[in-house]
Each structure stands twice: as C-alpha cells, then as structure tokens.
Amino acid sequence: MSNSIKNILLAGVGGQGILLASEILSEVLMLAGHDVKKSEIHGMAQRGGSVTSHVRYGARVYSPIIPEGKADILFGFEQLETFRYLPMLRPGGRVLVNDLKILPPSVALGKEPYPQDIPAKIAGRFPETKVVHGMDLALEAGNPRTVNTVLIGALSRLMDIEEGVWLQAIRNMVPERFLDENLKAFELGRNA
Amino acid sequence: MKKAILSGNEAFARGAHEAGVRLASAYPGTPSTEILENVIKYPEIDASWATNEKVSLEVAIGASFGGARALVTTKHVGVNVMADPLFTLSYTGVRGGLVIVVADDPEMHSSQNEQDSRNYAKFAKVPMFEPADSQEALDFTRLAFEASEKFDTPVFIRSTTRISHSKSIVELGEPVQGLPEPRLERDPGKLVMLPANARKRHPMVEQRLRDMAEWSATQGFNRVEEGSGEIGIITAGVAYQYAREVFPEASVLKLGLVHPLPKGLIRDFAARFKTVYVIEELDPFLEEQIRAMGIEVLGKDKLPICGELTPGRIEASLLGAKAELPLHSGEVIPNRPPNMCPGCPHRGVFLGLNRLKAYVTGDIGCYTLGFLPPLSAMDTCVCMGASIGNATGISRVLPPEERSKVVAVIGDSTFLHSGITGLMDMVYNKSAATVIILDNRITAMTGRQENPTSGFTLAGSEAYEVDLEQICRAVGVKHVQVIDPYEIDKTRELIRSEMARPEVSVIITRRPCMLIKRDVVEIKPPLYVDEDKCTACKACLKLGCPAIEWQDREGAKGKCHVNKHLCVGCGVCEQVCKFGAFGVCHVE
Ligand code: SF4
Ligand code: SF4
C-alpha cells in the first residue's frame, strides 16, 4: 500500500458533530493542495450510535476507507469511542482524545462498567497521546458548541499544515455570526 | 476549472443540474436521501418528495413522456416498490432522458437487506452505470442522460453507501444547452403497453442492449489501466478503488457500464493474464456472466458475498494476508447501538407496549429502535408498510385468546408510503388487530424529510396537510383516536382498551419529532433526581432514555442520575417514577 497516503480516523458518538469536523478537516487538506477522500455512515448510526469518519489524503487517494491498522492519527471525540477504534491505528500512531465520557446504553442501565482510566491506557500503548479538555476550553471560548473547533485546533498541532490554511477553512465553513468564538476556540485548542 | 469537494450524493445532484434535468422525484431512503436534498438547491429543477418509490418513478415517467429530462433516486429496496412501472418503462422507452440513481447498502448500515441492484438492471433489461468516486458520479449522471435519449431507454446508475457518503474532489462543468423544450407529442404505439404494442417493443429492447454493449466497448468509461505482472483485475464501482489500493501494480479493466457488458473487451483483456480476479461487492454479477463466456476467473470462491468489501478483506481473501490487529486491548468494550433521542415521542408508546406484553408487528423508521432493550417491544419488521398486513395475517391464524395481543406500529410517513392499502384490507377482511400510527409529523429516520402529513414540501413551501384520522375513517375504521404520547399512562390505557376491542381500531400518537428543523421543538430545563427520594427501583431506566444513567455507589445503593447535557425536560421519566413526587423532579 502506498506510503504517501496519510490517514486520520475520527471517532465519537452520533450527534457530536463529527461529520462537520471531518468536513472542515477535508477542506483544510484540499486547500493545502492534497487529494482528499473522506467516508462515513449516515442514517441509523447517527441516533446516538458509534460513529466514525475516515479522512485520507496524499498525492492520489484510491480507497475512501482506511485499512485496518493503518491510521496515522486517531482523533477521538469521546473516551470509549477512541478506545474502541485503537486497533485501526498503525504502530506508533498518534491519538488525540477529548476527555468526555458519554455512557452507552448498557452502562447507563448499570449492566456493564464504563472502562476506567481510558486516556492512561491509551497513552500506555501509544506514547504520543494527547488529552484535550474540549468542553472546558469551549466554555472559555464562550460557547460549549465550539468544542469541535477546540479539538480541531489541537489536531492542527499534530499536522504539518500552516495555521493560515486552518483559519481559512474555518472562515469558509463557519457562519459569520459564529466566526469569532470559533476562531478563539481554535486558538485555545491549538495552544492546549 | 472550478473544483469542489463533494459527496457522491452531492455529485449526482450536480450532475443532474449540468445534464439539464427538469424534474426530480424520490422517497427518502438512506443512503440516497441527500441527492434530492441537493437537487432542490438548483432552482431550475422541479424536485419533490413522492409518497413512495413507485409514485416517484411514475411521476418521472410522466415528465419524460412530456419531453423533459427526469431523475429518480432511491435506496436499493425502493426498487422493489417501483419494479412494476420499471419493467414496462423498459419497453416503452423514454422521450426526455430518464435516469434512476439507486444506492445499495452493502453491510446494511441502514437497511433490512443487502440486495444487489445490478440484478435489476439485468432483470428489467435496463442499462446500468456504476461510478467509483464523486467525479464519476457527476460525469456518469450526464452520460446516463445522453445514453437514455440516444438508446431510448431508462438508465440506472448504481451507487453504494461508500460512493454516496464519501467525499472526493470534483471538477465542475457547465450545464448543457439547447435541450428541446417539453411539449405534448402523442405516440400511443410506443407508450400504450397493450399486448399488441408490447410484443413489438420487446425485440427492440433486446436489440437496444446489443447496440449498447457494442457502443460501450469503445467508450472511455470502460477502460484498461495497464500495469505489470501476471494478474489482471476486472472490477467496477468502489471495489475498483479497493482493488487499486491492494494491487497497485496489476492491470485493471475498470467497467463504468456494468450492464450490458462489453464482452469483446473483457475477452481480450482476460486472454492476456494467467490469473484474472473479478473484484465486486455483493453478488457475483460480473463473475457469472464472465464465466458464462467460458473465461476462468477467481472471484466469490474467495471474496465474501456478504457485507462490504474493504482493502483489508480483499487482501485477506485473495492474498491470504492476515489482518494484523496487534494493538487490540483485549478489554471488553461496551457496544454503542443507536437509540431514540432524549424526548423522543415514541419512547412512552413502546414502554406501554412492553408492559402490555403486546405482540408488535413493526415497520421501518426511528421507531424500529423500539426493538432494542430495555424497551424490547417489537416482534417483527419486514419492509415499508408491512406491519399492518403482518398484523392482519397473524391475528387471522391465532386462537381467539391470543388475537388481541397483536398490535401494528407504523410511522406517519410509512403509513402513507404503503400502509393505507394494508389498513383497507384489514377492515375489509374483518381483522381485529390494533394499529398505532406513530405520528411525529416528519420522516425522521432518514434525516427529517417533509411528507404529506407535515404540511410542507421538499422546497419548503406550504402544502395540504393530510388528515390521517379521515383516511382511517374513509377506509372503514370505526374507532380512530388521537393521543399525546407524552401522557404515558393515558396512552397505555388507550392501547389496552383498543387491544381488547374485537374490531379494527387505530390509535394515532401525535407529537413532533425532537429534531424537526423547521419547527424547532422547545427544549425545557433538564430534570434531576432527588437522591433522597430515589429508591433505586430502576423503573425510569426501563425507558432507555439516553439522559438517564445508573450510578453505582460504594457501600450504598446505587442511584439514577440525569445527564443535564442530554436531558430535554420532556417529563416522561417523571411519570414513570412510582414514588410520585419522589424520583425525578424539575430543577427550580
Ligand atoms: S429523530 Fe425524532 S423520531 Fe427519531 S428518535 Fe429522534 S425524536 Fe424520535
Ligand atoms: S425528562 Fe426524563 S425522559 Fe425526558 S429527556 Fe429528560 S431524562 Fe429523558
């Protein structure tokens, strides 16, 4: 398989806005001059189910889905979902995890435990793991709904693309009236 | 050249715009829904939601017979519904181009079966294109309209979830100019399919397929990509992308038209290789036809028929490579199935059905999730509209004491799609079952599309709001009652009394979906659990509301807890807490 292709897997819970985040990420990659493909599942899974979005970029991308064990970055919006998709990472891959917990039904019903200390367990296997307190920073930016922009800001540190391109993509995709708080959220995430 | 990053569905819509489409019609269905939602952004296209797929195709046929280019979009199972007009349309042919985009769902991410629509192309003798990315989705849509008119045939385009819902970079073109204006032109010999006329048309259909096969052998959409080595690959659609990823060096015959097949091209290609792989998703559609030509190939004897292909699955099947998953934690990770939203109007109804131990024949929509624990209140679900007929049949064969247990549940949109005829039959044939129409004023599961009960069209303009009560009465239901499903005790009581009634009755549970975009549902302050009053009886957990969480407490009884970020204050849990004021209360 071609080594020049980079793979980012976004993982979280339906309703968290993962599809929009992957949209912004794809825009960044296109503006940076890459061939980009992204793939995800709409519909039933979005009703609070486990959701992923695959983003691939490079000189020429064929498959829109990331082969198992080949993701370079796992970009997790929720602890358990990040943990679930660890097998998608390549050895030495990097993890960005939001410290949020959303209980799946069996846990909420008291039938199963939510695995403990997920960030530490992930970091134990993937030393290049970064935990982001997305919600705290979003509140600091002035709106809890900017949490995904915070996370994108944190992701921008892991990737070799100029800050200006990220800001441009956010300007292209976020409605004018939410722009300021989102730019602030991006900076907070980037400096986290 | 203008570039954009588009999903397959956005690209189909763009292709329709560039092809000069005048009319588009569809019933929503994942993964096809967003095509029409993007088509409506082009003001020159008259796009609308139809009540079902058969109607959508009939509307498009009318437009085509009037001389306009018309687009139909559907998910795979929708083709079953439109099959009747489809097979005869194949005989009449078209005036304006007519293209049906059908989106299959390998892996059944959002579907009840995994049928491979390419079989319909062969069965109905309708040509079929299969794009492999968004650029081809756009290009093939333009091409399909040209081919439709050139060969006087409807044309299929097959998508799959991975084409429809993947984004890739697309170069946009300009809309075609100079298409003829629609106007009446009579041609009954071609368009009235009486036996005498149809007999004349059938040989033309056969000839058309031969002509198209010959034409397609010289077209760029079927192409050979020269590689090296002794392996040749024949493939189409998204499987092409996976094949290129797994076999970067191999020579590939990429088919853009998967029906009819360019046999000469295939024969010449296959003759050059020691080993030929046919890599395709779902059925051995290409493979069987190629084998029937006397060519030895490797395909489904190694590759899976069930589910999606992925680069990993292809590698494992054809190269014996073990998918290496060295980094699995070994720890049990709780599943996260989808669930009805906090505040969903259906939740209380299913709690009632569960408590009443009803035998529930279900249907297709968000409410199918009522099957999952803890609600666990659905016993069957077959296809759109099946709930009512299923209830009729089962109650007719059961002993009298069990008959009253049978309840059909069906959504408002699904009822209009194909429930009305079942209800008419239920009354006509004197069934005694109970029907619940879960009326949430929208087609929710596919992403909240308008329908004839919602009072709005796809374009957002106001429309006549269908009166469900009157429809039920008109087909002969004497007992039609409407209730607010947030009143859960009353709803359960009503279901109980109607189940006991030895005649057909309909209960309409009416309350809007939480997610309607146009009429945003008011979110009330979240509730909280007064821990001194919570007796840990877990009654509220039976609702399966995502906002209610059980918390173990060390050395003490656990407690229920409301996640204030998820709760929408619907108050349903408050009603199930047996301890009256105890349990769940409003925050001051
Ligand atoms: S989208 Fe609407 S109908 Fe579907 S689960 Fe949510 S509230 Fe219920
Ligand atoms: S009020 Fe109760 S049932 Fe309704 S959303 Fe909140 S926790 Fe769920």
TrEMBL record, chain A:
Which part of the chain is the Pyruvate/ketoisovalerate oxidoreductase catalytic domain?
Answer: 14-190
Give UniProt keywords alphabetically: Oxidoreductase
* Highest taxon listed in the record's lineage: Bacteria
Give a Pfam family name: POR
Protein name (database record): Indolepyruvate oxidoreductase
Organism, by scientific name, is Desulfuromonas versatilis
Automatic annotation (TrEMBL), chain B:
Which reaction(s) does the protein catalyse, per the Swiss-Prot or TrEMBL entry?
indole-3-pyruvate + 2 oxidized [2Fe-2S]-[ferredoxin] + CoA = (indol-3-yl)acetyl-CoA + 2 reduced [2Fe-2S]-[ferredoxin] + CO2 + H(+)
Q: What is its EC number?
A: 1.2.7.8
| The 4Fe-4S ferredoxin-type domain, residue ranges | 525-553, 558-587
Q: Which domain of life is it from?
A: Bacteria
Q: Which keywords fit this entry according to its UniProt record? A: 4Fe-4S, Electron transport, Iron, Iron-sulfur, Metal-binding, Oxidoreductase, Transport
Cofactors that this protein relies on? [4Fe-4S] cluster
SUPFAM superfamilies, sorted: Thiamin diphosphate-binding fold (THDP-binding), TK C-terminal domain-like
- Alphabetized Pfam families for the sequence: Fer4, POR_N, TPP_enzyme_C
User: Which note does the record give on the cofactor?
Assistant: Binds 2 [4Fe-4S] clusters. In this family the first cluster has a non-standard and varying [4Fe-4S] binding motif CX(2)CX(2)CX(4-5)CP.
Instruction: Determine if Transcription regulation is one of this entry's keywords.
Output: no
Question: What NCBIfam families does the entry give?
Answer: IOR_alpha (TIGR03336)
What is the stated purpose of this protein?
A: Catalyzes the ferredoxin-dependent oxidative decarboxylation of arylpyruvates.
Describe the subunit structure. Answer: Heterodimer of the IorA and IorB subunits.
User: By what name is this protein known?
Assistant: Indolepyruvate oxidoreductase subunit IorA
